[in-house]
Amino acid sequence: MSLVRCDGVVQIYRARDVEVVALRDVDLVIDAGETVALLGPSGAGKSTLLWLLAGLLRPSAGRLWLDGADLGRLGQRTLDRLRATHIGMVLQNPSRNLIGHLSAAQNIAFAQRATARSRRQGRRRARDLLARVGLADAAGRPAGRLSGGEQQRLALAVALANAPRLLLADEPTSQLDEESGRRVIELIRDAAGDGTTAVVVTHDPAVGEALGRTVTIRDGRVGAEGRRGEDFVVVGREGAVQVPPEYHHLLPPGSMARIEELRDGIALRRAEP
Ligand SMILES: Nc1ncnc2c1ncn2[C@@H]1O[C@H](COP(=O)(O)OP(=O)(O)OP(=O)(O)O)[C@@H](O)[C@H]1O
Predict the structure, then answer these.
(1) DSSP letter string, 105-163
(2) Any coiled-coil ranges, and where (predicted)?
């Protein structure tokens, strides 16, 4: 069953007279329990897609569904409630996920206020999450005094506080050493085993390899996907295909190609005009 569905999603930022088209016609279906690494060059639109999936932005065009709810059309209160109960998010800047003067444990408790879980259950889950991210001894320390890497790990624990249906994480290992990075990946995979679908923006190859599927965004579009170690290009609307950068020496952008029909597809061969 699909948990997330994007249908022709377009996001245009408008700042004064300038328009930036961050996403153009993104079609994407993510099934419940999948772990997806969102890859792509800087400025490709990865964070924008995460913000849209989190309901923090409404798409300029197209539609996004989370668990059957049309995110772009929900009233603000329903959307806020859905976000609090269904979505856990780790923003790129770890300190922005946390309330600096509250302790690590209190940050988790604060995230849990939206769900009906008993206090005892909540505290047990908080303790378990803090231990899983290697912060068992930091439960009582103010979040604002933790190091960048510790804040990043705490942010993941906070995002998972409610066992959300959807975890969205923007570069959750960017400030971590290898060992802490491994713990974070393990926690995301275990959460998926418990029913949390995860979409993780990353430049970290270890994260890309450890998650079940990769989706590469290039120039605001889904350009490629990887499953079980095999990479595929994605044929977009109107048949558009992005030639991956590693083949640009054979078919540089702007070059002309001949299309050769094969029994099960086509081949592109460089042609001189
Ligand atoms: N609030 C905004 N106002 C105007 N333009 C924006 C805004 N946020 C992002 N952009 C632009 O939208 C495009 C996509 O940005 P986005 O942050 O989604 O890319 P990204 O793939 O996450 O990049 P990175 O890997 O560097 O974080 C970029 O051209 C960026 O400059």
Answers:
(1) HHHHHHHGGGS---HHHHHHHHHHHHHHTT-GGGTTSBGGGS-HHHHHHHHHHHHTTT-
(2) none
Prediction pTM value: 0.92
Residue 147: count other Cβ atoms within 10 Å of its Cβ. Answer: 11
* pLDDT tens per residue across span 88-109: 999 988 788 899 999 999 999 9
Ligand 1: residue whose CA is nearest its atom 5? 13
Ligand 1 residue neighbourhood (C-beta within 6 Å): 13, 15, 20, 22, 40, 42-48
| ipTM associated with this complex | 0.97
Strand pairing class (166-170; 87-90)? parallel
**57 Cα to the center of ligand 1, angstroms:** 13
Give every residue of the chain whose pLDDT is below 70, as ranges.
Answer: 116-117
Domain 33-45+76-236+244-271 fold:
Rossmann fold (3.40.50)
pLDDT tens digits, one per residue of 64-76: 999 999 998 999 9
Query: Which residue, judged by its Cα, is nearest atom 25 of ligand 1?
Result: 42
Q: How far is CA 111 from the centre of its chain?
A: 19
Return the residue whose CA atom lies nearest to atom 3 of ligand 1.
13
